[in-house]
Design a protein that fits this description.
Length: 257
Protein backbone atom coordinates (compact mmCIF):
# COMPACT_ATOMS: atom_id res chain seq x y z
CA UNK A 1 0.00 0.00 0.00
CA UNK A 2 1.45 3.44 -0.90
CA UNK A 3 2.49 5.60 2.03
CA UNK A 4 2.99 9.34 2.42
CA UNK A 5 6.30 10.65 3.74
CA UNK A 6 7.34 14.22 4.51
CA UNK A 7 9.87 16.28 6.45
CA UNK A 8 9.07 16.07 10.16
CA UNK A 9 6.78 13.03 9.93
CA UNK A 10 8.74 10.96 12.43
CA UNK A 11 8.53 13.80 14.95
CA UNK A 12 4.75 14.39 14.72
CA UNK A 13 3.23 10.91 14.45
CA UNK A 14 3.12 10.67 18.25
CA UNK A 15 2.87 14.38 19.02
CA UNK A 16 -0.85 14.10 19.87
CA UNK A 17 0.20 11.91 22.81
CA UNK A 18 2.84 14.40 23.94
CA UNK A 19 0.47 17.39 24.02
CA UNK A 20 -0.31 18.10 27.71
CA UNK A 21 -3.91 17.60 28.83
CA UNK A 22 -5.05 20.97 30.09
CA UNK A 23 -8.07 21.41 32.31
CA UNK A 24 -11.19 23.03 30.88
CA UNK A 25 -11.92 26.23 32.80
CA UNK A 26 -15.46 27.60 32.95
CA UNK A 27 -15.69 31.39 32.56
CA UNK A 28 -18.90 32.10 34.47
CA UNK A 29 -18.83 35.80 33.58
CA UNK A 30 -19.36 34.97 29.90
CA UNK A 31 -21.66 32.01 30.39
CA UNK A 32 -25.39 31.78 29.81
CA UNK A 33 -27.94 29.02 30.28
CA UNK A 34 -27.86 25.97 32.48
CA UNK A 35 -24.45 24.29 32.91
CA UNK A 36 -26.11 20.87 33.00
CA UNK A 37 -27.52 21.39 29.48
CA UNK A 38 -24.21 20.17 28.07
CA UNK A 39 -23.77 22.94 25.48
CA UNK A 40 -20.16 24.14 25.30
CA UNK A 41 -18.15 26.87 23.61
CA UNK A 42 -14.44 26.10 23.96
CA UNK A 43 -11.84 28.72 23.08
CA UNK A 44 -8.11 28.11 23.04
CA UNK A 45 -5.23 26.67 21.04
CA UNK A 46 -6.98 24.17 18.77
CA UNK A 47 -4.60 21.26 19.43
CA UNK A 48 -4.77 21.72 23.19
CA UNK A 49 -8.54 22.25 23.10
CA UNK A 50 -9.04 18.92 21.32
CA UNK A 51 -6.75 17.17 23.81
CA UNK A 52 -8.69 18.75 26.69
CA UNK A 53 -11.96 17.33 25.32
CA UNK A 54 -10.58 13.81 24.99
CA UNK A 55 -11.00 12.66 28.63
CA UNK A 56 -14.67 13.71 28.54
CA UNK A 57 -15.77 12.93 24.99
CA UNK A 58 -13.51 10.23 23.55
CA UNK A 59 -15.58 8.04 21.27
CA UNK A 60 -18.73 10.19 21.54
CA UNK A 61 -18.79 12.28 18.36
CA UNK A 62 -20.96 11.01 15.49
CA UNK A 63 -19.87 13.54 12.89
CA UNK A 64 -16.95 15.94 12.62
CA UNK A 65 -16.55 18.54 9.87
CA UNK A 66 -13.37 20.62 9.70
CA UNK A 67 -12.30 23.44 7.41
CA UNK A 68 -8.52 23.75 7.79
CA UNK A 69 -6.22 26.22 6.02
CA UNK A 70 -6.05 25.32 2.33
CA UNK A 71 -2.35 26.25 2.24
CA UNK A 72 -2.87 28.65 -0.64
CA UNK A 73 0.10 30.81 0.35
CA UNK A 74 -2.13 33.82 1.01
CA UNK A 75 -3.63 32.67 4.34
CA UNK A 76 -0.45 33.64 6.24
CA UNK A 77 -0.83 30.78 8.69
CA UNK A 78 2.08 29.96 10.97
CA UNK A 79 3.37 26.59 12.17
CA UNK A 80 3.91 26.81 15.91
CA UNK A 81 3.41 23.36 17.44
CA UNK A 82 5.88 22.63 20.22
CA UNK A 83 7.44 19.53 18.63
CA UNK A 84 10.80 18.31 19.88
CA UNK A 85 12.55 18.35 16.52
CA UNK A 86 15.41 20.63 15.38
CA UNK A 87 14.15 20.72 11.79
CA UNK A 88 10.64 21.68 12.89
CA UNK A 89 11.85 24.30 15.38
CA UNK A 90 13.34 26.22 12.47
CA UNK A 91 9.77 26.76 11.20
CA UNK A 92 8.42 28.36 14.37
CA UNK A 93 6.88 31.86 14.15
CA UNK A 94 7.42 32.03 10.39
CA UNK A 95 4.57 32.59 7.96
CA UNK A 96 4.15 29.69 5.52
CA UNK A 97 4.97 31.02 2.05
CA UNK A 98 3.61 30.46 -1.44
CA UNK A 99 4.41 27.71 -3.90
CA UNK A 100 7.94 28.17 -5.22
CA UNK A 101 8.87 30.50 -2.36
CA UNK A 102 8.62 28.03 0.54
CA UNK A 103 9.96 24.60 -0.40
CA UNK A 104 8.72 23.00 2.84
CA UNK A 105 5.21 24.48 2.79
CA UNK A 106 3.51 21.11 2.21
CA UNK A 107 5.64 19.47 4.92
CA UNK A 108 4.56 22.14 7.40
CA UNK A 109 0.90 21.67 6.48
CA UNK A 110 1.13 17.91 6.96
CA UNK A 111 2.92 18.33 10.30
CA UNK A 112 0.16 20.69 11.42
CA UNK A 113 -2.69 18.45 10.25
CA UNK A 114 -1.54 15.03 11.47
CA UNK A 115 -1.83 15.40 15.28
CA UNK A 116 -5.16 17.24 14.98
CA UNK A 117 -6.64 14.57 12.74
CA UNK A 118 -5.34 11.90 15.10
CA UNK A 119 -7.16 13.50 18.07
CA UNK A 120 -10.33 13.92 16.01
CA UNK A 121 -10.15 10.21 15.18
CA UNK A 122 -10.12 9.41 18.91
CA UNK A 123 -13.15 11.67 19.49
CA UNK A 124 -15.29 9.82 16.93
CA UNK A 125 -17.48 6.92 17.97
CA UNK A 126 -17.28 3.64 16.08
CA UNK A 127 -19.94 4.78 13.58
CA UNK A 128 -18.48 8.27 13.37
CA UNK A 129 -17.69 10.17 10.16
CA UNK A 130 -15.05 12.83 9.52
CA UNK A 131 -15.56 15.32 6.67
CA UNK A 132 -12.88 17.82 5.68
CA UNK A 133 -13.07 20.71 3.22
CA UNK A 134 -10.10 21.22 0.93
CA UNK A 135 -9.18 22.45 -2.56
CA UNK A 136 -6.84 21.16 -5.26
CA UNK A 137 -3.64 22.29 -3.51
CA UNK A 138 -3.63 19.72 -0.69
CA UNK A 139 -6.34 17.28 -1.81
CA UNK A 140 -3.98 14.44 -2.87
CA UNK A 141 -1.90 14.71 0.30
CA UNK A 142 -4.97 14.95 2.52
CA UNK A 143 -6.41 11.76 0.99
CA UNK A 144 -3.21 9.82 1.76
CA UNK A 145 -2.95 11.36 5.22
CA UNK A 146 -6.50 10.31 6.11
CA UNK A 147 -5.88 6.85 4.71
CA UNK A 148 -2.90 6.52 7.06
CA UNK A 149 -5.10 7.37 10.06
CA UNK A 150 -8.48 5.87 9.11
CA UNK A 151 -7.29 3.15 6.67
CA UNK A 152 -7.99 3.23 2.94
CA UNK A 153 -11.01 0.91 3.20
CA UNK A 154 -12.80 3.50 5.35
CA UNK A 155 -12.84 6.14 2.63
CA UNK A 156 -16.45 7.18 1.91
CA UNK A 157 -16.23 9.60 -1.01
CA UNK A 158 -15.04 13.01 -2.16
CA UNK A 159 -17.94 15.44 -2.48
CA UNK A 160 -17.65 18.28 -4.98
CA UNK A 161 -18.81 21.58 -3.50
CA UNK A 162 -19.70 24.14 -6.17
CA UNK A 163 -18.90 27.71 -5.14
CA UNK A 164 -18.59 31.04 -6.94
CA UNK A 165 -15.01 30.38 -7.99
CA UNK A 166 -12.82 32.38 -10.35
CA UNK A 167 -15.41 32.80 -13.09
CA UNK A 168 -14.38 36.30 -14.20
CA UNK A 169 -10.73 35.57 -14.93
CA UNK A 170 -10.45 34.86 -18.65
CA UNK A 171 -6.69 34.23 -18.61
CA UNK A 172 -6.83 31.08 -16.48
CA UNK A 173 -8.81 27.88 -16.29
CA UNK A 174 -12.00 28.66 -14.42
CA UNK A 175 -12.57 26.72 -11.22
CA UNK A 176 -15.85 26.98 -9.38
CA UNK A 177 -15.60 24.10 -6.94
CA UNK A 178 -13.82 22.76 -3.90
CA UNK A 179 -13.99 19.36 -2.21
CA UNK A 180 -15.22 17.72 0.98
CA UNK A 181 -13.48 14.42 1.61
CA UNK A 182 -15.17 11.97 4.00
CA UNK A 183 -13.92 8.96 5.96
CA UNK A 184 -15.77 6.68 8.36
CA UNK A 185 -14.10 5.29 11.47
CA UNK A 186 -15.42 1.75 11.13
CA UNK A 187 -15.65 -0.12 7.84
CA UNK A 188 -19.20 -1.18 6.99
CA UNK A 189 -20.87 1.74 8.75
CA UNK A 190 -22.40 2.76 5.41
CA UNK A 191 -23.39 -0.70 4.22
CA UNK A 192 -26.13 -0.67 1.59
CA UNK A 193 -29.58 -0.33 3.06
CA UNK A 194 -28.26 0.64 6.51
CA UNK A 195 -27.77 3.89 8.33
CA UNK A 196 -25.45 4.57 11.27
CA UNK A 197 -27.22 3.70 14.51
CA UNK A 198 -28.40 6.86 16.36
CA UNK A 199 -26.87 7.52 19.74
CA UNK A 200 -28.35 9.93 22.23
CA UNK A 201 -24.97 10.32 23.91
CA UNK A 202 -23.22 11.15 20.65
CA UNK A 203 -22.06 14.61 19.66
CA UNK A 204 -21.45 16.45 16.41
CA UNK A 205 -18.80 18.98 15.44
CA UNK A 206 -19.39 21.60 12.77
CA UNK A 207 -16.59 23.87 11.64
CA UNK A 208 -17.51 27.50 11.17
CA UNK A 209 -15.23 27.95 8.17
CA UNK A 210 -11.76 29.25 7.44
CA UNK A 211 -10.58 32.39 9.15
CA UNK A 212 -7.43 33.82 7.52
CA UNK A 213 -4.55 33.86 9.97
CA UNK A 214 -3.16 37.34 9.39
CA UNK A 215 -0.51 37.47 12.10
CA UNK A 216 2.37 35.20 13.14
CA UNK A 217 0.42 33.41 15.84
CA UNK A 218 -0.73 30.00 16.96
CA UNK A 219 -3.98 28.74 15.43
CA UNK A 220 -6.85 28.84 17.90
CA UNK A 221 -10.15 27.04 18.10
CA UNK A 222 -13.61 28.29 18.95
CA UNK A 223 -15.65 25.19 19.59
CA UNK A 224 -19.36 24.86 20.33
CA UNK A 225 -20.63 21.44 21.40
CA UNK A 226 -24.22 20.38 21.92
CA UNK A 227 -25.40 17.09 23.37
CA UNK A 228 -27.85 14.86 21.54
CA UNK A 229 -28.06 13.30 18.11
CA UNK A 230 -30.19 16.11 16.66
CA UNK A 231 -27.96 18.99 17.75
CA UNK A 232 -24.63 20.15 16.41
CA UNK A 233 -21.42 21.76 17.52
CA UNK A 234 -19.13 24.20 15.77
CA UNK A 235 -15.36 24.60 15.38
CA UNK A 236 -13.75 27.59 13.72
CA UNK A 237 -10.04 28.14 13.19
CA UNK A 238 -8.92 31.64 14.05
CA UNK A 239 -5.73 33.48 14.88
CA UNK A 240 -4.31 34.18 18.30
CA UNK A 241 -3.32 37.81 18.77
CA UNK A 242 -0.76 37.04 21.46
CA UNK A 243 1.86 34.42 22.17
CA UNK A 244 0.20 33.51 25.47
CA UNK A 245 -1.32 30.06 25.74
CA UNK A 246 -4.31 30.19 28.09
CA UNK A 247 -6.05 27.02 29.15
CA UNK A 248 -9.10 26.13 27.07
CA UNK A 249 -12.20 27.93 28.34
CA UNK A 250 -15.78 26.69 28.49
CA UNK A 251 -18.61 29.15 28.01
CA UNK A 252 -22.05 27.68 28.65
CA UNK A 253 -24.58 28.78 26.08
CA UNK A 254 -28.36 28.67 25.94
CA UNK A 255 -29.91 26.04 23.69
CA UNK A 256 -31.44 27.29 20.45
CA UNK A 257 -35.22 27.34 20.26
Amino acid sequence: MPTLDWIGKAAVVNHHQEVPTRLLHCDSSLSAGAPEAGNLLVEGDNLEALKALLPYYAGKFRFIYIDPPYNTGSERWVYNDNVNSPEIRRWLDKVVGKEGEDLSRHDKWLCMMYPRLRLLYDLLNEDGVLACSINDIELPRLRLLLEAIFHATNFVCTFIWVNEGNIDNQSKIKTNHEYIIAFVKREGCFAEGRRPRPSTSAMTIWDGGRSPIASPARPRTNMMASRGSALSARISLAASTTSARPSPTILHRKSRA
